[in-house]
Amino acid sequence: MDDKKSIQQEIRERTAFLKKAARAYYRDNEEIISNLQYDKLYDELMALENETGIIMAGSPTRHVGYETLSDLVKEAHPKKMLSLDKTKDAEELISWLGDRKGMLSWKLDGLTIVLTYRDGKLFKAVTRGNGEVGEVITNNARVFLDLPLEIPFAGETVLRGEAVITYSDFEKINEAIPELEAKYKNPRNLCSGSVRQLNNLITAERNVRFRAFALVSTALSGREKERIENLPDFGDSKEKQMKWLENQGFYVVGYRMVTAKNLKENIDWFGRNIKENDIPSDGLVLSYDDITYGRSLGETAKFPRDSIAFKWRDETAITRLMEIEWSASRTGLINPIALFGPVQLEGTTVSRASLHNLSIVEDLKLGVGDEIEVYKANMIIPQIAANYTKSGSTVPPSKCPVCGGRTRIRDENQVRTLYCTNPKCPAKKIKAFSHFVGRNAMDIDGISESTIEKFTAKGFIKEPADFFRLDRHRKEIEEMEGFGERSYKNLSAAIEKARKTTASRFLYSLGITGIGSANAKLIAKYCNNNWQRIENLSKEELTNVNGIGEVMATAFVRYFADEENRKKVRELMGEIRLEPAEGYPETENRDLEGMSFVITGSLNSFENREELKDLIERRGGRTSGSVSAKTTALINNDLSSGSAKNKKAAELGVRVISEEEFLKEYDIDA
């Protein structure tokens, strides 16, 4: 068993690593391993897959294309999927189990999926839906992070499990996808939306995972019909079913086998470990291990009698509401946050809880000074359980806390939310601010998008120049959650360093439509890095710059014709100092004019690819991420590589040259 598990883990790890390497190569134009190493790992993975019959989703040995559907097909379940009866009383669980052996497992908080495998291959995946009718999401299940596409058992297998998104992935995704803030409040909502996407590329990007929790049936079919001995024998034990599912390559829900004698201590064990569990759980499930006995009990109109759910009694505390903070977001939504006297809950100090929308504030009749009861939902997320005073004295602000613009209440689907009506509210400029501080722009190290959100919500940043004035808010920043004196000092040092920049970086940081990093360098060079000349360029002058066309020139001139933009630039110029251009000495040599190059693999004479790209562009050439018939040469130090770029170059008759050959051929001193 241990050997099988180690082989399965090796398959999962190899699949994940090769998937990462392929993504880096094809999407990010980077090589994290050589082609030789990739091919070696690929061959080893294929051998392991052939040996075990297990092929995980995302395996490079099987191509699963991304596609968009017009809708999700509905399908009725052969038998209604019932929900579970619940209890919060451990003694009731003990009485329910009696003298039987049971299985105690996490009750995962995701989306229940029914999977069908035929001839060992994933045939169909259907959501629970309303228990009677679900949606067919086979296309999306094929790109779940850790779901087997093929399993050793070649008959028909039907099982149930939970599609989940971990807390850590949820936090990353919430930061990276702006529109989620208004839609998704927890991993379960995000998972539900991800699993039911019409475009499975989106599903794949959200790291949906699958945990099996029940085997419904196995049957002979296809090539197994003549081999009766291959029908699994579960010995009437649910535990053996779970172990069989593990041997087929599935991750199963975490479980422990229990009796009435040790049930309480195992409940406590799960309770202690829920805080460390990265997969969302909203309780436990207790099932009889004896399959026949469980089935013999039948079911009620609502619940099966072979399993029961357990919910912990929430640890609560009484405190007083000190303030309701209104936090503006990039979508314009203004979220209420309850600040209350600090209390200890589940081993940590809690002093704030998100209220999500205005309806919750109104339903709880909240007001400053009210006596409230707070708890942690699922022992993790702080919530307000009750308000004993019910003063109802909270009045939503008529002005946005960030920009002072007028607010408006929206009532949609019986949920009331507060919005800022100002289209130029700084809170709506998160992406622009994030671009401004980025590595190729002003390069203010240590300011993430989530930090920008917090600073704009507090009103610290309303315009780009405010990044250089954060010393005005030092005390508040040091007292913010996740910050402190040391964090502030690091931030301050990064800001001071960023004050010295180049004309091209500064131009790129403004986010003018179509003006990327390379074009900003070309424009700055054309003007000899003279900022006054740069911002007063005419459309005719711009179109004389190599690589700048009519559309970009129009956007550029329109940007600087706007007085508000001029004011923003003037304020920034008062905070920064423009230095001479970085990198190689300026040259008028335009000998690469009209040529196009693709760069791949590691370099020897340049710090990174950006440095080589910069040199090519300054000498009039262009760079691209993919090989085409217009490519002059592919620069790759591994000339014998079997990579996709080398193969494409061979197909199109494009030269593949080494870095040294490139430098020598074009007389470049690196």
Average pLDDT, rounded to a whole number, is 84
Q: What is the makeup of the main sheet?
A: 7 strands, antiparallel
Number of helices: 25
Structural class by secondary-structure content: alpha+beta
The CATH superfamily of the largest domain bears the name DNA ligase/mRNA capping enzyme
Please give the number of β-strands. 26
CATH-scheme architecture of the largest domain: 2-Layer Sandwich
Domain count: 6
State the assembly state of the protein chains. single chain
**CATH topology value of the largest domain:** D-amino Acid Aminotransferase, Chain A, domain 1
Q: Which residues sit in consecutive blocks of at least 5 with pLDDT less than 50?
A: 178-183, 582-588
Structure description:
This protein has 670 residues and is of the alpha+beta class. It has six domains: 1-62, Helix hairpin bin (Helix Hairpins); 64-310, DNA ligase/mRNA capping enzyme (D-amino Acid Aminotransferase, Chain A, domain 1, 2-Layer Sandwich); 316-419, OB fold (Dihydrolipoamide Acetyltransferase, E2P), CATH 2.40.50; 426-498, Orthogonal Bundle (DNA polymerase, domain 1); 501-579, DNA polymerase, domain 1; 596-665, BRCT domain (Rossmann fold). 34% of the residues lie in helices and 22% in strands. It has 25 helices and 26 strands. Strands 14, 15, 16, 17, 18, 19 and 20 form a seven-stranded antiparallel beta sheet that branches. It has a five-stranded mixed beta sheet with strand order 3-13-12-4-11. Strands 6-5-9-10 form a four-stranded antiparallel beta sheet. β25, α24 (644-652) and β26 form a beta-alpha-beta unit. The longest helix has 25 residues, at 2-26. The model is unreliable at 178-183 and 582-588 (pLDDT under 50).
